[in-house]
Design a protein that fits this description.
Elements (H helix, E strand, L loop, with lengths): L3 H15 L11 H11 L4 H10 L12 E2 L5 E2 L26 H10 L3 H13 L1 H11 L3 E6 L7 E5 L6 E6 L9 E8 L2
Parallel strand pairs: 4-6
Antiparallel strand pairs: 1-2, 3-4, 5-6
Helix pairs in contact: 4-5
Length: 191
């Protein structure tokens, strides 16, 4: 007795094997063909740019721009970065990482802090790219590097060139992972 699944699979293979392959289109100019393919490729930058321009989007003036001070320095425009998410109550917050996990235990031991502080610091550090990406969009060529401090009072320190204004800010996460938690941020220009 034949299995119905085996029969179906063999029939599908037969049909696929007997189908006629598509005929390639002939073009006298291969450059025209490549340009035509590229302009219809939804993954090409040119196609995206053309679509945005056709929809009336001004792609030459990015929406996220820093403030330029009177002395020509870059200052982060926090209004463009802030999420308007309410700060969470960390005493009742449901962290996505279990307080009893080995990672939390190891972090608490390594930095001599409580398990609750370790749990909080781990989640905030894992959510930090949400804020960092928005800040980098405004720093233009002023960015040099960044670090997350470890321990109970962790913060994101962004090192910049001296053409950036020093600043401190508290960013409230909007993404579900870390939503409502606060990331202290310090912009630290070179001296």
């Amino acid at each position: 007795m034949k299995s119905p699944i085996l029969t179906l699979a063999l029939s599908a293979c037969l049909l696929i094997g007997c189908s006629k392959p598509a005929e390639p289109t002939q073009s006298s100019d291969s450059a025209d063909t490549a340009d035509n393919i590229e302009s219809h490729n939804p993954h090409s930058i040119e196609a995206l740019t053309d679509t945005l321009k056709a929809d009336g989007v001004d792609i030459d003036s990015p929406e996220i721009q820093p403030i330029i001070t009177a002395d020509g320095k870059i200052q982060i425009n926090w209004e463009l970065i802030d999420t308007n998410t309410q700060k969470a109550d960390i005493n009742s917050y449901q962290y996505p990482i279990d307080i009893g996990s080995q990672a939390v235990q190891n972090y608490a031991k390594a930095y001599n802090i409580s398990d609750q502080q370790a749990q909080h610091s781990i989640v905030v550090s894992m959510a930090a790219p949400e804020a960092l990406g928005k800040i980098l969009d405004q720093l233009e060529d002023g960015y040099k590097g960044h670090e997350l401090t470890d321990g109970a009072d962790m913060k994101l320190i962004i090192h910049t060139k001296d053409n950036v204004v020093a600043d401190k800010h508290e960013y409230v996460f909007a993404d579900k992972f870390g939503e409502g938690l606060v990331l202290p941020i310090e912009i630290r220009p070179a001296k």
